[in-house]
Amino acid sequence: MSTSLFEAPPYDPERARKKRALVISIACAIAIVAVVLYLFRYWPEEQVVKRFFTALQTRNFEQAYAIWTADPDWKQHAQQHAQYPFADFYKDWGPSGEWGIIRTFRVDGSVVPKGGASGVVVVVTVNEIVDRKANIWVEKKDKSLTFSPLETCDAGRPCT
Q1: What's the domain count of the chain?
Q2: Most buried of the four, 59, 60, 74, 106, by CB within 10 Å?
Q3: How confident is the model at residue 154 (pLDDT cuts 50, 70, 90)?
Q4: pTM (2 decimals)?
Q5: Angle of the 86-93 helix axis to the 61-69 helix axis, nearest 10
Q6: Is the pLDDT of residue 152 over 70?
């Protein structure tokens, strides 16, 4: 037997309450997932920089260079990295480099330049030197590192 519009089932407040609770729960879950994704949007780039500085901290400069170039087999074709060879890398990041022997580091945050970019600037405090930060550019596509063209100010924000 079919029912018509005028023979609708009676209103069930319990069913309506459960439906409303389900809709609110789903909306809250979506909002929480969106916030978490936003807060951790540069997490992969920050992890690459952490691996890089950990290799420097343990004085494994060859591994650090492999992370820098995003090329674990860089020794087999070092000529591909002629623009920034290992010897120059060692001068910059070795014991006599700008930061000296790296004992401690802390990733302070990351930022993308206004207007979009192909990479992320990860801001790092090295050896607890708080008035000068290491700004490392991480290419999004291959996770290679380079010196950032962007200076950052307090809290990792780009200087204006």
Answers
A1: 2
A2: 74
A3: low
A4: 0.80
A5: 110
A6: no
Q: In b/e form, how buried is each residue of 128-152, taking b as 16+ CB within 10 angstroms?
A: eeeeebbbbbbbeeebbbeebebeb
Instruction: Tell me if residue 127 falls in helix, strand or coil.
Output: coil
**What are the residues facing 105 on neighbouring strands?**
126
- 98, 92 Cβ separation under 8 angstroms: yes
Short-list 47, 33, 32, CA closest to 120: 47
Confidence at 160, pLDDT banded by 50, 70, 90: very low
For 93-122, the pLDDT digits (tens) are 999 999 999 999 999 999 988 877 889 999
pLDDT tens digits along 48-74: 999 999 999 999 999 999 999 999 999
Other Cβ atoms less than 10 A from the Cβ of 33: the count is 10
139 and 74, same domain (yes or no): yes
Residue 119 inside a domain? The answer is yes
Q: Is residue 3 part of a domain?
A: no
Rg of the Cα atoms in the chain: 25
Domain residues for the domain of 86 are: 43-156
